[in-house]
Design a protein that fits this description.
With 341 residues, the chain is α+β, with helices and mostly antiparallel strands. The structure holds phenylalanine.
């Protein structure tokens, strides 16, 4: 039995020294020291021994058990230390490596232009107003004096949602005039930027989705001179003092009189080039004195109050502001283009 114990001890110690995982140590513990382990099996034969031999072998067995137990613990501690060292090595941070640069984006040039426009109007006492892109034809047309049969209501120009042409993607921000008249106390000064939709083919100056900025003033004694004075001052603030503008008579159902405002072409300085289609001028907004019928439909006394409104194309403003020659660049979102602003 003595030799048996000695063999167990040697075998176990050798196996322990080889173990590389704590799970292995645990199964070795079970194998040698467990209830059905080899050491226990030897002890079960103690009954066969003589009374003199029994304490000697018992002592020896205990020594082996203690030795193996201690060895298992020591080996476990060693493995853990190795593991910790490996982890520390793996997770080591080299604080001398230069950091990875994070690419920071910035506002889209069109929104930069919009911010500038908003700032100028807010400085003049205007309030910014937001409204629905899915609009009722009632607000987009009827309340703006464009009744059934008006050419602008045509299916070929407008994205309708229903057969009855009642719900649509707004084709202009002008319905915001009506929303403002319905919800704001007089006097009113609002600026309403947003997306509008028309069935246009994409080219250098057209897109089926584009942006307008609507502006409206209603107060007592408002005249066309206020309209011209305000818009001229805005263009000078945006594009620099002495920026040349011109007003041309035009027609809109909801303004009377109506006009369009042009700004001298930024590319050719008025000589004529592809950007301005040889005109020397770029049309930037439609405007006019609010039609008395439109005021009355919203319950505003047109004898006491008058007002003006405009709707400008935001893309065109941004193109002029940043000297961009093709509208498509604004929507393509090519980073190489956007990075320049
Ligand atoms: N809504 C008109 C357009 O889209 C522009 C406009 C706005 C004209 C306000 C007059 C007054 O062309």
């Amino acid at each position: 039995m003595k030799t048996q114990l000695e063999t167990i001890k040697q075998k176990a110690l050798a196996a322990l020294a080889e173990a590389k995982e704590s799970a292995e140590l645990e199964s070795l513990r079970v194998k040698y020291l467990g209830k059905k382990g080899e050491l226990t099996a030897v002890l079960k034969q103690m009954g066969k021994l003589s009374a003199e031999e029994r304490p000697v072998i018992g002592q020896l067995a205990n020594d082996v058990r203690e030795l193996l137990t201690a060895e298992i613990e020591a080996q476990k501690a060693k493995l853990e230390e190795i593991k910790l060292e490996a982890r520390l090595r793996d997770e080591a941070v080299d604080v001398t490596i230069p950091g990875r640069e994070k690419k920071l984006g910035h506002q889209h040039p069109m929104y930069i232009a919009l911010e500038e426009i908003k700032e100028i109007f807010v400085g003049m006492g205007f309030t910014i107003l937001d409204g629905p892109e899915v609009e009722l034809a009632y607000y987009n047309f009827d309340r703006l004096n464009a009744e059934e049969g008006h050419p602008s209501r045509d299916w070929s120009d407008t994205f309708y949602f229903d057969e009855d042409s009642r719900v649509m993607l707004r084709s202009q921000t002008s319905p915001m005039q009506v929303h403002a008249m319905e919800t704001k106390p007089l006097p009113i000064r609002i600026l309403a930027p947003g997306r509008v939709y028309r069935k246009d083919e994409v080219d250098a100056t057209h897109s089926p989705m584009f942006h307008q900025v609507e502006g409206m003033v209603i107060d007592k004694n408002i005249t066309m001179a206020d309209l011209k004075g305000t818009l001229t001052a805005v263009m000078e603030q945006l594009y620099g003092e002495g920026t040349k503008t011109r007003f041309r008579p035009h027609h809109f159902p909801f303004t009377e009189p109506s006009c369009e405002m042009d700004v001298q072409c930024h590319k050719c300085g008025g000589v004529g080039c592809p950007t301005c289609k040889g005109e020397g001028w770029i049309e930037i907004l439609g405007a006019g004195m609010i039609h008395p019928k439109v005021l009355e439909m919203s319950g505003i006394d047109s004898e006491e109050y008058s007002g003006w409104a405009f709707g400008m194309g935001l893309e065109r403003m941004a193109m002029r502001r940043f000297k961009i020659s093709d509208l498509r660049l604004i929507f393509e979102n090519d980073v190489r283009f956007l990075e320049q602003f």
